[in-house]
Amino acid sequence: MIKEKYTNRVKEISVNIVQTDIDSVRKKDILKTGLRVYDKGYIGVAGAMGKADEEDLERRAIDNLSLKIPYPCEPSENLKMHLDYREDIFSDEEFVREADEVLKVLRDEFSDFTFSNKMYLFEMETGLTNDLGLDLLHRDRLLTVEFVIKEKASANVFDAFAIYATRQYNREELLNIIREELTAYRNPVKLPEEGKLPVVFMDFDMVPVSKLIDELNGYKLGTGASLFKDFIGEKKFNENFTFYQSAEKEDLRFIEFFDAEGVVNEGFKYALIENGRIMSPYTDKKTAHKFNLPLTGSAVGEYDKVPSLSPRYFKVKSSDKTLKELLNGEMAVAVVIASGGDFTAEGVFGTPVQLAFLTDGERLIGRLPELKLSGELYSMFGEDFIGKSKDKAFLGQQALALYLNVNYL
Amino acid sequence: MDRDIKFVKDAKPVKPGKYTVIFAPVATGVFTHESFGHKSEADFMIGDETMMKEWPIGKKVGADNLCIVDSGEILGSGFVPFDDEGTKAHKTYLIKNGILSGRLHSTITAESLKEDTTGNARALNFEFEPIVRMTNTYIEPGDKTKEELISEVKEGILIEDINHGSGMSIFTIAPKISYMIRDGKIAEPVNISVVTGNVMETLHEIDGISKEFELLSFTMGGCGKMEQFPLPVGLGGPYIRVNNVNVQ
Fold it and tell me: Across the interface, which of A148, A339, A344 has its CB nearest the CB of B166?
């Protein structure tokens, strides 16, 4: 029988903001411990919050072997890696003072808007160790700002948002993102024309790649339900299009460099689509074993759960061009909020766009009316794929650019 | 399962345009939850003069036969007999006969707006503070049968099941199973990416509400509001017929 311990500690201070003022402060310090036992092809799991009695956890995990949860895979082994990505940001008191200062500036410069929701200072430590020499530890600290923004004259629940996440906080960097967005917001503009236009999405926006994530699910592909089931190894997309799972430092936000089964990808990357060719679906150990697929380290699990297949963090590989170079003189639609759209089973895409701006590739020029976008999966990442910018040209994010049909709603 | 297999095999892309759409209970529920439910959460109104002017109690906001309710008293995903501040649940009419009748409150929002508490302060778990959330939110049944609603449509769409929905100024529903309606009968299956409409206009475009009613509970997923996701809620309703819905 093999024993494996998973620990996760989160320390967080967050400032709750209502009407551009601090409403309350919340502090957390939560430790979670999970114990897994593997025996004769089964797994037993038990978990506890706070200070855990590990002997009791082990007893409960062994008892839970009687549930006969199959786990016909070997636990990860013989790997020691401790990574500490924390940088000095603020103390808790400094953080609250800084939040107050930022809000003062926003009240002054943007009195026609209100800001609400939260700012966080978040620290995490996750460890995974077992009897087979696995010893993984991840530490990180992030300052995150998630503002919901409302124009005072609007009857909507909210009109815009601003997101900023960093290990090295810079007040002017945060404020400049908001300044660019809201200055453009105050300037209504029209589309150059309706029809096929370049559209750019922020790096963290999963809307355009959601169908890829669905169809690259290893279980879906293994059971024959995926659109890509017959296309592994085939070039179906633009040769400049590479889509990969990333656990690189710059991409980690609240997740670890290892997955819930202790798998660490070489270079912290795994290409699912490379230069247009579909290489592999994403898998956890069970899925890889069951369908004889490559293991990509895509297991996710809470401290007291059996790890299971789930998307971790995927991204499109950047080009060597700026957004301006990619757009090559064209104006583009820069999407900030495209909520509620989806792909059909065959890959036809449609979404309303509640907030978008016109961009020249260097700055947001003005706010567009509500729009609708449409496209088709193989075209979007085939002949209509423009590229991902190397620069952070869209509100502090790299930008993914592709051609879509754009019409007024 | 047979329905789903047949749908996947036979469905063709829909011709985009504006249609009369009949929403089945699950679609009605998501529409109600996303398009109007979140607007009723009073924490969005605190200190907001524009919203208070736009949404005064007593304003006509929908068709005469439209009643929208939130109630934590009903067993299921949205069963909240006492909220996380200890307030007892009760049935709150958000819209009654087309008139804005109530909002959802925590103790703070109720005090701020000088209205009564409603038992809607909920926290995802111990790691979060209670905020205003829905419980079970639904449109009350009407007086037509499902067959009557369908038979009165010359060309339209029936949405039987959905993937997800959202609501800001525009609501969206991503259908999973949908069919054309032609000359009052259910016709061929169609694939639709998304249907949308302006929330406030659409409430006036509801011209038929069925007697048949279903309130649904879910084992997975739930409602998201800022960082607190997924919160179990119940949703559903009758079949509703809505005109002038954008379909793509």
Answer: A339
A234-291 pLDDT, tens digit per residue, is: 999 999 999 999 999 999 988 999 999 999 999 999 999 999 999 999 999 999 999 9
Q: How far apart are CA A362 and CA A364, in angstroms?
A: 7
Q: How many CB atoms lie within 10 A of CB B52?
A: 13
Whether B75 has its CB under 8 Å from any CB of chain A: the answer is no
Which residue has tokens 């709150």? B92
Between the two ends of chain B, the Cα-to-Cα distance in Å is: 25
- A47: Cβ–Cβ under 8 A, 6 or more apart, which residues? A32, A33, A34, A35, A57, A302, A303, A304, A305
Q: Write the pLDDT tens digit of every residue in B75-106.
A: 999 999 999 999 999 899 999 999 999 999 99
A198 neighbors A395 (Cβ within 8 angstroms): no
Contacts of B48 in chain A (CB under 8 A): 19, 114, 150, 152
Q: Residues A168, A160: contact at Cβ < 8 Å? A: no
Cβ neighbors of A331 (< 8 A, separation 6 or more) are: A192, A197, A198, A358, A359, A360, A365
Asked if A152 has any chain B CB less than 8 Å from its own CB, the reply is yes
Answer whether B172 sits within 8 Å of A340, measured CB to CB. yes
Closest residue in chain B to residue A155, using alpha carbons only: B51
- In chain B, residues 170-199 whose CB comes closer than 8 Å to chain A: 170-174, 191-194, 196
Could you say which DSSP state residue B32 is in? I
The length of chain B, given as a count of residues: 248
Residue type, B79: F
Q: Return the amino acid letter for A193.
A: E
Alpha carbon dihedral B92, B98, B99, B101, in 10-degree steps, equals 0
Cβ atoms within 10 Å, residue A57: 22
